[in-house]
Amino acid sequence: MIIVGVDAHKRTHTLVAIDGSGSKLKEKTVAATSGGHHEALNWAISRFSDDLMWAVEDSRVNTRLLEHDLLGAHQRVVRVPTVLMAKVRRSARTWGKSDPIDALAVARAALREPNLPVAEHDTETWELKLLMDRRDDLVGQRVAVMNRLSSRLHLIDPQVPAWNLKRSPGRQALQQWLTASADTLISELALEELADIDRFSHNIDALYNRISKRVALLGSTLTGIAGCGDLTAARLICGTANVTRFRNEAAFARYVGVAPVPAWSGSTHGRMVLTRSGNRAMNSALQTIAVVQIRLDTPGRRYYLRRLEGGDTKAGARRCLKRKICRSVFTRLLADHRRRQHADPRHSVV
């Protein structure tokens, strides 16, 4: 089997083909367009054979169209995390950094790691991710404007009342207060920033409604977990992308950062420590579910209390609860995926 490593950029893609021993065979640079992708495919098939595996650096912004074209041509495509590519490049005997060097490192990383995730996107979860990314951007912009507005209000009056600017009544009350205050440039700028916050909030609320409808259309059962709302479910769905790319629940737990890692030597045999790696957004979603379950009268709270009675610390018991929730999330994601596939065997892949 020939592995073709791809170093993807906005305008060009550099390809390097290697054999089963990791030896470099050929390299080529093509345009980052559908025409360039078909040129790359024809080049690889004519030079080698149909037994190809394409390894692309995991940069979805630059590789989505490439993956779409290759999957449409029934090619096998795997995603190589950037950290793996960088480690292979550092261990190589070739000095420096260039597109061919990076493409070679991507190919060799795919050769060394046999269980890399296979590139696949279904239309529904991809569109859900686009909506979540847009909402995250707007929330970040609103927070930045609210921080600037807070400093301006302190200049006007250090004893200004605290209003919840995420809600319309709070924004209206602040607008009336600013209108009644002295007509200064600071008040004028504060009113403009308040208008920005109002616009951001309306857009965020509209996106929330669209996200909730898409979660319902997907028929997700994640919302049946205590503490998992529509936004949390959407975060888990779009972060997972294709749940079948995980070998088992343990691999999924490692991906979201709730699986402990070994840290022992000699007499400390069996010692495990908390890992800070993994998808932090999905880890935060599990944390939200865990905190809600602990606060309410749920099976999760009873499990948490049993861990405390068994001698665990609060943090340790909470980590065990997150691991338990992770199992439930994986099981539901897998069941939802299989149900959609059964309902529509022609489930689209982009």
TrEMBL record:
Database matches in InterPro entries: Transp_IS110-like_N, Transpos_IS110, Transposase_20
Pfam families for this protein: DEDD_Tnp_IS110, Transposase_20
Annotated GO biological process: DNA transposition
UniProt-recorded Gene Ontology molecular function terms: DNA binding; transposase activity
Transposase IS116/IS110/IS902 C-terminal domain segment(s): 221-304
Domain Transposase IS110-like N-terminal positions: 4-156
Protein name (Swiss-Prot/TrEMBL): Transposase
Organism: Mycolicibacterium obuense
